[in-house]
Amino acid sequence: MSQHSYDVVIIGSGTAGQSAYNQVVKHTSNVLVVNAGPWDTTCARVGCMPSKLLIEAAKYAQASQHASEFGIHNQTRIDAKAVMQRVQHLRDYFTGHAQAVVDQWPAEHKRQGKAHFIDATTFKVGEDTISTKASIIATGSIPRVDPQWQQALKHKLLTSDTIFNLPALPKSIIVVGSGAIGIELAQALARLGVEVTLMGKGNDIGGLSNPDLRKLATALLTRELNYIDNSSIEQVYLEADQVVLHYHRSLPGQHNQHSGQVKAEYLLAAIGRESNINTLGLDNIDTKYQGIKGAIQHPLTMQLDDLPIFIAGDVSTTQALQHEAANAGRVAGINAAHYPEIQPFEPYTGLSIVFSQPQMATAGQSHQALTRANTPFACAEVSYRTQGRATIQDKNEGAIQLYGCPQSHKLLGAELLVHEAEHLAHLLAWSIQQGLTIEQLLAMPFYHPVLEEGLRTALVRLRAQLPELAP
Amino acid sequence: MSQHSYDVVIIGSGTAGQSAYNQVVKHTSNVLVVNAGPWDTTCARVGCMPSKLLIEAAKYAQASQHASEFGIHNQTRIDAKAVMQRVQHLRDYFTGHAQAVVDQWPAEHKRQGKAHFIDATTFKVGEDTISTKASIIATGSIPRVDPQWQQALKHKLLTSDTIFNLPALPKSIIVVGSGAIGIELAQALARLGVEVTLMGKGNDIGGLSNPDLRKLATALLTRELNYIDNSSIEQVYLEADQVVLHYHRSLPGQHNQHSGQVKAEYLLAAIGRESNINTLGLDNIDTKYQGIKGAIQHPLTMQLDDLPIFIAGDVSTTQALQHEAANAGRVAGINAAHYPEIQPFEPYTGLSIVFSQPQMATAGQSHQALTRANTPFACAEVSYRTQGRATIQDKNEGAIQLYGCPQSHKLLGAELLVHEAEHLAHLLAWSIQQGLTIEQLLAMPFYHPVLEEGLRTALVRLRAQLPELAP
Predict the structure, then answer these.
(1) Contact, B430 vs B239, CB < 8 A?
(2) pLDDT (tens digit per residue) in A346-362
(3) Which residue in chain A has the smallest CA separation from B323?
(4) What residues bind NAD(+), as annotated (chains A, B) (predicted)?
């Protein structure tokens, strides 16, 4: 039992914590990082990296089949172990990189353990009492699980935390949840020869809010996936080492309910993530923090109310986005180090990408965000069915939707459901962040033949819908 | 023999001519397009489109082999006829689209034939004399051929005009010329199982000017290509229906010459393109136009000296770039229609892409352009050997080079030798066209894990090399 005093304590050493640390050490070396789990990142161990690795293998599996369209005929054998081995080998390589960063920090800056707030500037870590001028909460999030499923299915219940540890691809799997993670993994596994059933609660699909694109995405994905939307899960149990799932399905506006059951080797729960904020004892500071969830800090300063506490990364967001976590960590780090002098930072323009095929991406404001805020906007769609380069690639599917401001002619947002949307989304997000108008965007070079030319078509259509700019 | 008088005559109906026509008809219907060849575009018939189609097939062939790295094992059979059939089928589809545009023009706007200037406002087309207030030359270019080779090799000598008509992939080919077209086709054919020898004159490689990237590109391409650089061709002839080519090879700074010969089914001449400007009788207007080549018009107005003549598209450039041809046609169209009131138009920021694997791209000013103009610049390189997403994709090769202005901190240019460079190049070209500084670029969102993050690394390195911005 001892007493320590720091300028800044960072709780959590993932992406946000590491990013905060990099800022804090520019101002003080009297810093401590308290971390309860492994000293790497969600991104490298169980997030972006292993999922993209699996998706990449799936792309090759799909390309091997699809090559016949180009006159290239393959007899394909998928090695279910080798696929997972590459995923794990490179996941460990990336995790090692993340750990190597932390390994370079001085030992006195690191403390393994769980922090528990006593008041706004004091914690317990084990038996020790730690006081600090300011602290940063960057404890991340974990996949949500239903305790009853856990009990019923035991090791047959997977989450994104465990699926990448499988020694081989499963024969069959039920993926529950049709958000970004559910869609990405369900499609990748199906392309790798796994028998996949995807269960959706409503008709949510990946990261799209535009109703037309959601319909199109459902149509595209159900070509290769057994997708049961509008379903509610009644019961799950094990039978002869197989997962059995009973569900009801009721379509909106219809009275009839349909019941059914599916069986598979595993069940992957992809039903969202839960913040790790509730185990920190924040309610000792103020009872109003009891049972808090999601973003409660100031979005531009990361400060929690007027306390010397800053919150950054997945712990406070519903979407686990690495680039946002890194940026929030940076802001929290700067402000914690300068506390009580804090400043707001310009946020990034929204950018989110689902790595399905075709990809789904949102840049700037989504259809839903604009509609909810009653923002006036014009909307233009371009189908990629006949887009030149996409036709060359035999990837001529999907569509894009652009949203523009009728007054300023600025581009407000975009939703994309096309191959290589990740690149188009960067182009659009950067343009939106700069406040470019449709006219300014149309003065930019578009090479030929490229997928970007579809954006130009959409911009031309959008301009045609806008009233003349006031001179 | 008859006399006609027009407001604008457009000579050539390709990309630049069509683009000019679209502008001219906004102002006058007294317009004539005179065209000597087919009423489609170089791009669709023998340029961008068929080459990208062949390259796409090559990607699938390469992916089929490469899939084993991901645990996906293919026994691959390449159907040499089917590969070419898809290329031809879709080429005809794109050509049909280009023709369909022209089919919509009124018959009285079109005239098949060859135009010959008598003076600055009068031509002959066949027996007819045509006078016009203004004219636009958009007659394009054709692949350069050596008449001796033509005579010696007959139908065994191919150019980009003829290679896409082959009924099947050849067994073997000698590609002469290591510029964009030579590299693209040599690599694609090699990946499709054709035995390829690539002959280079100096050590030019594709579209890169940066010495480090050129070295790297040579190293990457010679892994899969028999590339004989610094060669001069002594003799070509046919022997038992095979092309035989004798060459000398002398490395710069070395006295020893090496001689050799290669044999193949075909020889593809990819030694540049020649403007079609010299057959128009421009020397009847002024003898100084005798034997002219390349860009002689004003680069911002497209006007030829102070004449009512505008020049647009491949006819006046060494690089055949569709998006530049379309833009030049637009400018020429507007200015010809308004003649004598003409105005300069802002040019696009330079953007060129070679669709090799990895791709080569230049955005803004190249290393060579900056060096030749004695522009002060700082330079930062990032290798993609350990880039995250590229590692996931097993495409972690190549590098990028960014050039920045030490005074203004603006990004001046970039050269890229990485996979998917086409997308990164758009991001950079748009940023350069807007005059963004390194600091402004670093405030943009970079998703994770994406290839764009390599740009951020390069921007950080570039910033570290620049003196502080004057406050």
Answers:
(1) no
(2) 999 999 999 999 999 99
(3) A447
(4) 177-184, 272
* Catalytic residue list contains A66: no
Residue (of A120, A107, A124, A136) closest to A3 by Cα position: A124
From A201's Cα to the closest Cα of chain B, the distance in A is 28
Cβ–Cβ contacts within 10 Å for residue A75, how many? 10
Question: What percent of chain A shows pLDDT beyond 70?
Answer: 100
The pLDDT of A289-297, averaged and rounded, is: 82
Contact at CB, B77 and A77, closer than 8 angstroms: no
Q: State which residue of chain B sits closest to A393, comparing Cα positions.
A: B56
| CB nearest to A64's CB, from B56, B72, B394 | B72
CB contact under 8 A, A349 and B48: no
Q: Is the peptide bond before A471 cis (omega within 30 degrees of 0)?
A: no
Q: How far is Cα B184 from Cα B197, in angstroms, rounded to an integer?
A: 13
Residue among A315, A318, A313 nearest A333 (CA): A313
Total beta-carbon pairs less than 8 A apart between chain A and chain B: 217
Residue B276 gets which letter from DSSP?
A: S
CB contact under 8 A, B70 and A60: yes
Cα(B172)–Cα(B193) distance, integer angstroms: 9
Q: Which residues pair with A378 in a beta bridge?
A: A404
Chain B positions touching A427 (Cβ under 8 A) are 423, 426-427, 430
Instruction: Give me Rg for the CA atoms of chain B.
Output: 24
A52 annotated to a ligand binding site: yes
Nearest-by-Cβ selection for B430 from A351, A444, A448: A444
Q: Is B81 in Cβ contact with A71 (below 8 Å)?
A: yes
- Please write the tens of the pLDDT for every residue from B382-436: 999 999 999 999 999 999 999 999 999 999 999 999 999 999 999 999 999 999 9
> Is residue A204 pLDDT above 80, yes or no?
no
B71/A90 CB distance under 8 A: no
Pairing of strands B128-137, A115-119: unpaired
Beta bridge partners of B164: none
- Rg of chain A on CA atoms, in Å: 24
**Burial bucket for residue A274 (CB in 10 Å: 0-12, 13-18, 19+):** middle
Among candidate residues B382, B71, B385, the one with its CA nearest the CA of residue A76: B71
Q: How far apart are CA B121 and CA B285, in angstroms?
A: 9
DSSP B343: -
How many C-alpha atoms does B170 have within 13 Å on its Cβ side?
28
Task: Answer for the pair B314, B325: CB distance below 8 angstroms, yes or no.
Answer: yes
Determine whether the annotation assigns residue B173 to a binding site. no
pLDDT at residue B294, rounded to an integer: 67
3-state secondary structure of A48: helix
Copy the structure tokens of residue B355. Answer: 């669709």
Residue found by looking up tokens 């010459």 in the block: B257
Q: Can you list the domains of chain A with their CATH numbers?
A: 3-142+274-338 (3.50.50.60), 147-272 (3.50.50.60), 351-465 (3.30.390.30)
Partner residue opposite A43 with nearest CB, options B56, B348, B448 = B448
Please tell me the distance from the alpha carbon of residue A458 to that of residue A442, in angstroms, as a whole number.
10
Q: CB neighbours (10 Å) of residue B461?
A: 17
